Amino acid sequence: MAGITKLWKRKKGSNSGAGNGTVVNGHDEDSRTIHCNRPDHGLFSYAGNKTSTRKYSWWSFVPLALFVQYQRAAYWYFTAMAGLSLAPFAPYSAISVWLPLIFVLVLGLLREAWEDLRRARGDRELNNRPIEWHDGNGQFVEKRWRDLRVGDLVRVKDGDFFPSDLLLVSSTGPDGICYVETMNLDGETNLKARQALEVTWGIDGKDERKLKDFTAELLCEGPNASLYTFSGRLKYNNAELPVGPPQLLLRDSSLQNTGSVLGVVVYTGHDTKSMQNSTPPPTKRSRVDKYLDKVIWLMFALLLAMATLTGVIIGIRTKQDGTDIWYMRPTESNPYYNPQKAAIVGIVGFFNGLVLYGYLIPIALYVSLEVVRVAQALFMINDIEMYDPASDKRARVKSPGLNEELGQVDTIFSDKTGTLTSNQMDFFRCTIQGVSYGKGTTEVERAAEKLGMPLGPSPRDPRPDSTRPTSRTQSVDNAIEVDTESLGPENNPYKEKGFNFYDERLLAGKWVQEKSAESIRFFFEILALCHTAIPEGTPEEPSLMRYRAESPDEAALVVAAKQFGFYFYKRTPTTLHVRESLRPGDPPRDQVYQLLDVLEFSSLRKRMSITVRFPDGRLLLLSKGADSVILQRVDRKRSGPVAETTRHLKLYGEVGLRTLVVAYKVLDEEEYKSWAKRYADARSIIGKERESRTEELAEEIEQGLTVVGGTGVEDKLQAGVPEAVDRLARAGINIWVLTGDKVETAINIGYACSLLRQGMDNLIVSLEGSEARAIEERADREGWSRDKIQEGQKNFVSRKLDDALQLVLNGHVNPRGTSTSERKISVSESLQSALSRSMSTKSSGANLSRNASKNAAGTLTRNLSVTNGRHSRNPSEGKIGVEMLPLVDGQKVGSNGEGLDQREWAISKESALTQSRKGPPAEPTEYALVIDGQSLAYILAETVLQERFLEVCINCNSVLCCRVSPRQKAQVTTLVRKGLGLHRLCLAIGDGANDVGMIQAANVGVGILGVEGAQAAMAGDFAIGQFRFLERLLLVHGRWCYRRISLMILYFFYKVCMMGWIAFYSNIFAYFSGNPLYNDWYASFYNTVFTSVPIVVIGILDQDVTPAEAFRYPQLYQSGQRGELFNFKLILWWLAISLYHSAVIFFFPLAIYSGLSAFRPGGQVAAAQDFGAAMFTVLVLVPNLQIYLAFHYFTWIHHLFIWLSILSWYLFIIVYGALPTSWSTIAYKEFIEVLAPSASYWLLQPLVVMAALLPDLVFRSIKSVYRPSDYQIVIEQSKSKRDSQHQV
Predict the structure, then answer these.
(1) Where does ATP bind (predicted)?
(2) Catalytic site residues?
(3) Chain-wide mean pLDDT for the chain?
(4) Which of 202, 363, 1031, 1139 is the most exposed place for a label (fewest CB within 10 A)?
(5) Binding residue numbers for Mg(2+)
(6) What residues form the annotated binding site?
(7) Distance of alpha carbon 1069 from alpha carbon 19, whole angstroms
(8) In 3-state terms, what secondary structure has residue 542?
């Protein structure tokens, strides 16, 4: 640490223990000095411990919150129009324009204030938490978190959270050990051990003198966001000692299973690592919102064109014949109508038009959208069908602005463990010294068999009956035969959480009678020792003992060791305690193993090891890890049963088990002493060099291993996963699984959960196959450099992608290659056949059947995507399902009972060319791409390979990415999201901290409220308790929200455009003078009162089909993917309707009133304000009644608000007209004295309504008969079914 060394010398004049010349963060200013138990009071100006997550302060709230509001371009327009209303030439009064704008802005500010106050309330609660603080006199007193300073000595008790980042001084646990839970930081629920430096163990909270006299100086790195690194030196009692992550207790983590600890405050407030990591999630906007912005700009362009036309015409007419129009007073000094200054008149006319036609852009739409989205979110949260009783969790909605995105999802990226599976790991099978143990069928096997795809034995193994599949699985060595009716997982008397193994050869102590008893004993000893699990419970009650492990599968292995007589019950920093009970009835015997080193598991290492001294004095290295990692480090001379273990683990993976290899190494005493010294030196290094150096030494000692056996742990599928995946696929959604499992495991999990299906060709791109290994073998023989090896592997991956692309494009139906708009030309056979079967069974549905026979095929052909080509989900009736068999020589072979081979392609050039020569198949072929993390690493590093990879994926129905890291998950998600463009929407779902990057990279992120913590749920836009709830979230709520929001926006533009067109018509007849036809308050309340509530109710409650029908016909979901309900054509259609309706509303009353010689009972003709009020009446009636034509689902709530909105107009004109003329102006007693007594006024209303709505009614009726939409067919079919049931 050069920087720390310089600082240390400068402050203390000594360079002792400077630390190998490494650096903390590379700069002096990035380090800090802390005087322990002597808090900083301004000497170094370190931050206080008070934290705030608020977006605003009291003085910045109004300007910053308004800045957030004005990020919408429409708000700038509304404000500009309000400013123009202050001009003397404005057609409307300023207050009628300003009040709606102020109302919208105040609502937005109140929402921002409410959210910020919620954050402030949480901050206040956190900052006021109590903590025991050392007062410097040997006593602990209560203090608030916010008052802590760097250097304070505090005491934290069991179950409490750490108030800041602390340096662990001492613990009530043995040897300075304490246990912390970091779930709030990384989502992991396992406990992690932290240990104080030995020199400070004796400083406890009981000895006042030691507390008072304790002083030390800590020099450490400055604040940073790295949760897993920390380096520094502690100078105490004239000694300088290195400190690292094991001595750091992070804020937001909690103390567990430890009485109390003492710690020194290192980082406070926003300098703590948790706060350094609390970056805000990425801002996401829905596609509908983005498209709405474009529509707003289009309407603004239209508005500018209309205003420009108004200004030009009035300028020209004023110059030509302005003096002849006496009523405009051209001869007087009139600056707004002076024939001598026509240009100024035109400019005034332009701005006048902007205000007059300004209702083309609806300000009320934004408020209505926010109200509707919040209400939709409340319905999702309170949906009892998405309540998970096991975890007592409801759905959560964090981003209501993305509600409609749930109805347009095209691709789903899913984690496997904890998302598709339950993350409940059970020890299920094992292989020891080449012998496989464990009976029964896994859940994956049962699920596959239920779907007609039972797993079978390898074709190289003898089969009891080669003519038909069997539900029995045989081990490779034929030593055992497993039958689903025998004892096993379903009726296992030894079953407990984490253990579902049954084999009479090993259970109940019978393993001691086996020929390889010593090897079996050693295998279970390794399981009992090689882990970092922490026991919770008393040694005298093994059945109640629980293990807090880094992962559920590690806990399952420790539970398995306990079941076989090796009961791990105690851990100290230097010892492991195991109680052996080898035979029933034998007295237990406690064994103490000396723990020397722990080489921890990481996603990069994919293995963990310990060095341990056995009670008999043997010094061993024990390892367990992924087969791809352990087998590379095997001693060629003393390899153990590598071939048999590999074959067994491959079979385990094929039936859905998670596998590990167990190995060991006998250590030479002198060799170990040398290594241990170098390892201790490496651990004392401060800075980034420590990690790389310790990894090199771990790699050194983990060579020359001997395989003992392997394990198979079952991760059960969540309930309803296969059905949910099947239904989502039939909805036209492409599903990707990104997992860390091996290829074989992922493939068979894919079959079990319906991701892979019968007849689907699986295209495998993997660097773990025989061809890829041949490259490595050649590299070993020829001594290739590392760069040349990587170049060869990259070329191999590129060639595989080329072969895959040629295969999926040559003569096959392209299920994903069409654009979103092109999907309209494809056929949904599954929905069509389901409807035809249902309609043909009942005579009462004859009329519908006739119509459907004529029109449904064409409509479905136009609207729904291919299901037999893209997601053919209907298995052939009466046929035996295709078996899933192991990969053999690059292919997976099976038989469907009729001699038809089904092949799973491991891609090769020969297969691609052969397929090309054969020409297109009779039936469309489905493809699934299976690719591993090593191949992805090369793809993600090169743009050309990314494009090729994306093209292959688009043409595949399913994609499985195996052996991928969390970073690769996020990279793949980002690649696909950007590659698919704006027309396809990606959703990511996961349950752990390793899924956060993927969730944030997708258009929509969904977190599972699982057992791996809440970090994924906190990072997601939505959160659910189980994967199966995703289908309801998408197919029901998502589809409804997309439909509601889309139709709501279209309807809003329809009704405001009517007012805009009418203002333009009236201005024509007013000589483009800008004089309004009606009172300005009519227009102000038009969007906010008279017509807004019914469409808001529809935006909250509208349903076209029921949830049951949405599940029965998931193809209906594809309307959102195609953007059928919100697109440019529909916008033009609704604008055309508004243009026609506005013409009828304006010119129909104009024709009637201009032709009447008398309007009032006294014989007076209609005045302009009379015509305006009468016309405005039908302007309120038509859009409210149009709802009955445009929508299909109505309840008493809909009817109530529609008619209340109409009634509100009549009440308003009565009450407003009764006000003094200074307020009501031209509306004074307009209804009571003028309109109500006139018969023509009441006759006008039904005539205009019928003239406006009748053509639309006829068109919609014809369309529903001859070109019905998908949902209309479903609705009619359901009505037919209900009618037939009533007749019966």
Answers:
(1) 415-417, 554, 601, 624, 658, 739-741, 963, 969, 994-995
(2) 415
(3) 78
(4) 202
(5) 415, 417, 991, 995
(6) 415-417, 554, 601, 624, 658, 739-741, 963, 969, 991, 994-995
(7) 90
(8) helix
